[in-house]
Structure formats: structure tokens, C-alpha cells
Specification:
single chain, alpha/beta, Hypothetical Protein Mth938, Chain: A
Length: about 120
């Protein structure tokens, strides 16, 4: 399975800032929840951040080049994700780590620099 990283020489989608109600990816500010992969940014649609379902991760599950690590930046603090949802992600080959958005942004950049198969679902703060 291919890693969600850009081709050599392509522009990686690094987080260069967060706060003030937005997340900046290579100079573009997003003021809505997003999924960041090495080479693209997707909208992250969910009904209730406090009650995420497996369907809320459909965009990731539909990828041929799924990440192996998923960082969930859930706002100002990490929130609980139901065990059955985390297990279903694990069954799909994705290990989810929950944290606040700032920690998720910093960790995502680090793991991407290490060329890990990582994605981050981020809620603006």
C-alpha cells in the first residue's frame, strides 16, 4: 500500500500554524475541521465531535493509500472516542491517537518529516 506522501519534489502539506479559530497549511488558513495528509487536505465532516462514529472517518477509509497513524486533534483538549470506533479503525490498519489540536499539529509535522504514513483530523482552535 502506498504511503500518503507526495511524490519526491512535490509540496508536502505541513501545518505552519494554528489558533485564532484556524489551522494554516502551507499558508492557507482553514476555519473548519480538516483531514491533512502528506499531499492533500480534505474536509472532515462529522455530526458531533463528542460522539464520533466510524462514518465520520469515511474519507480516510475510502483511500487506497490509507495512513497507518491517525492523529485526532479534537480542539482545546482531547475527547473520548468510542472503543468500537477505535477498534474498527485499527481493523482497517489505522491506529488513532487522541490529543488536543496543537499537539496533533506538532506531532503530524514530525511524523511527516520522518516519512511516516500519517494523517491528522484537526478541529480549529
Amino acid at each position: 500500500m502506498a504511503a500518503p506522501l507526495p511524490e519526491p519534489g512535490a509540496e508536502r502539506k505541513l501545518v505552519d500554524g494554528y489558533g485564532g479559530g484556524g489551522i494554516s497549511i502551507r499558508g492557507t488558513v482553514y476555519r473548519r475541521p480538516i483531514v491533512v495528509l502528506g499531499d492533500r487536505v480534505l474536509d472532515w465532516d462529522f455530526a458531533d465531535i463528542a460522539a464520533l462514529t466510524l462514518g465520520d472517518f469515511k474519507a480516510l477509509l475510502d483511500l487506497d493509500d490509507r495512513p497507518s497513524i491517525l492523529l485526532l486533534g479534537m480542539g482545546k483538549r482531547a475527547l473520548f472516542v468510542r472503543p468500537d470506533v477505535r477498534q474498527a479503525l485499527r481493523d482497517a490498519g489505522i491506529v488513532a491517537d487522541l490529543m488536543d489540536t496543537g499537539a496533533a499539529c506538532r506531532t503530524y509535522n514530525l511524523l511527516l518529516a520522518e516519512e511516516r504514513r500519517v494523517a491528522a483530523c484537526l478541529v480549529p482552535v
